[in-house]
Amino acid sequence: MTNMTDKSIIQARNIEKIYPNGCHALKNVSLDINRGEVVVIIGPSGSGKSTFLRTLNQLETISDGTIHIDEVSLTDRKTNINKVREEVGMVFQSFNLFPHKTALGNVALSPIKVKKKPRAVAEQEGRELLKKVGLAERMNNYPSHLSGGQQQRVAIARALAMHPKIMLFDEPTSALDPEMVGEVLDVMKSLASDGMTMVVVTHEMGFAREVADRVVFMEEGELVFEESPERFFSSDNPRLQRFLGQVL
């Protein structure tokens, strides 16, 4: 049994990541995330933000430390990682949609293939999810006929189709034209208000201020500072101030 709090759904302890070339990407990173909490991770490029996020579903293995998701150890060899990943949705910078499938086909695919849902059930749920992300009229469109913002919203609906307990977002707006950023952030705000546990790596400071329960600052592989948005953005931490001075 772990010593997780009743509310804590993610517990990362003393995480180290050292690549074979000697690059020390994560240095003793520890973070607890509570059920229903929105945690935003910011920091300069190369600070370890995305690496850390990817350890939470073992897309990146760790060199040392422990990670528990809903009391299941990700580092225990007996753990079925694919089973854990079914409950941890992930949205990347690039949309990774299947070009030969419609928006609905992309959303319904995993429930049919992985969860063995009947096609009719998966497609009905897919329609509801596409409606939720504002794409009811686009469900029969192929990715090539969707804007970047629309494709990213399909990717979010696809992740939600597996009924995850947690959603991880790795810079979900960084590949988008500026006018499309808002439509994706609006969907993420709606998920947050629905009580979804979310860990978000982003450069969108407005989103961090408005939606996050906590903001985390990483630099050079270290978790330097974490606080509520109000205290975070008014902090006099010198490393944080230097970074915010460059991005705000």
From TrEMBL:
Keyword hit for Endoplasmic reticulum: no
Localization terms from the record: Cell inner membrane
Keywords: Amino-acid transport, ATP-binding, Nucleotide-binding, Transport
Hydrolase recorded as keyword: no
Listed SMART domains: AAA
Xref: SUPFAM superfamilies: P-loop containing nucleoside triphosphate hydrolases
Pfam family name, one: ABC_tran
GO molecular function, one term: ATP binding
Membrane topology according to the record: Peripheral membrane protein
InterPro entries for this protein: AAA+_ATPase (IPR003593), ABC_ATPase_HisP-typ (IPR030679), ABC_transporter-like_ATP-bd (IPR003439), ABC_transporter-like_CS (IPR017871), MetN_ABC_transporter-like (IPR050086), P-loop_NTPase (IPR027417)
Ranges that cross the membrane: none
GO cellular component: plasma membrane
Family: Belongs to the ABC transporter superfamily.
Protein name: Amino acid ABC transporter ATP-binding protein, PAAT family
Species per Swiss-Prot/TrEMBL record: Marinomonas polaris DSM 16579
